Amino acid sequence: MFKGLKNSLLSIAFPVECRVCQAEVIDSNDGVACSDCWEATTIFLGNEMLCSKCGAFFGPRAAPIEVRCHQCDEHHYESASSLGIYEKALAASILRLKNEPLIPNRLVEPLKQRASLISDIDLLVPIPLSKQRMIERGFNQAEIIAKSVANITGIPVDSHSLVRTTHTPMHRVGMDKRARELTVVNAFKVVRPNLIKGSRILLVDDVFTSGSTASNCAKVLKKAGAERVKVLTLARAVMK
Ligand SMILES: [Zn+2]
Ligand SMILES: [Zn+2]
């Protein structure tokens, strides 16, 4: 009887159907994707070939020398890293995070590992939403991620000093490079520079696409006196 009750409660507590392959999700720690889809998703283990500045993915094996993509040469942050590639289970989890403020337990360990590699940070700053989008959604998914990082590291979150001044269209993943860049130029501003001045900041977001959003945020943060800006995202879109 208890077993039946437990299962029916579990089936209410988390979705049974994997949002990637429609198989059953057995383990609630996996969130909205099944364990097979998680296994098929690239989560970085630290031995991949990545751009040493922006984290662009070149291949599954580490290079014997430092590699750079050079697309990020002008970007204003020091470095950017992600938990994995924006695909399969990770993409499904991020799409869910835009509707429900939940990060699957499955991502806590990778988040811990990644956060432990990022040293000398005073402040976690989520990339802000516009006021309009914040009202529509009710929460900022980047802030949910920043709070998870705060739980792991004990570093405080500042969700108020950096604001987005313009409302930009959604679906940036599908836009071309030029269109993406135009939407984020001058889109951010620091409203409490006294909290930013002299700080070493970790910018937090869900997806790193071209890096222009993170770069523009880093630019205004540095203008306000930030000493250093690094970037952490859940996923990295692979640019075609
Ligand atoms: Zn699946
Ligand atoms: Zn790069």
Structural summary, described in words:
By secondary structure, this protein is an alpha/beta fold. It has 2 domains: 1-40, no CATH class; 75-236, Rossmann fold (3-Layer(aba) Sandwich), CATH 3.40.50. It contains 9 helices and 8 strands. The chain has helices at residues 2-13, 35-39, 88-97, 108-117, 131-137, 141-153, 177-184, 193-196, 212-223, and strands at 49-50, 57-59, 79-85, 123-126, 162-164, 188-190, 200-208, 228-236. A 4-stranded parallel sheet has the order 3-8-7-4. β1 and β2 (57-59) form a beta hairpin. The longest helix has 13 residues, at 141-153. The model is unreliable at 1-8 (pLDDT under 50). One zinc ion is lined by residues 51, 53-54, 56, 68-69, 71-72.
Give the secondary structure arrangement, pairings included.
Blueprint: H1 2-13, H2 35-39, E1 49-50, E2 57-59, E3 79-85, H3 88-97, H4 108-117, E4 123-126, H5 131-137, H6 141-153, E5 162-164, H7 177-184, E6 188-190, H8 193-196, E7 200-208, H9 212-223, E8 228-236
Parallel strand pairs: 3-8, 4-7, 7-8
Antiparallel strand pairs: 1-2, 5-6
Helix pairs in contact: 4-6
Bound molecules: zinc ion (2 copies).
One zinc ion binds at residues 51, 53-54, 56, 68-69, 71-72.
For this entry, give a set of tags:
240 residues, alpha/beta, Rossmann fold, 4-stranded parallel beta sheet, two-stranded antiparallel sheet, 9 helices, 8 strands, disordered N terminus, binds zinc ion
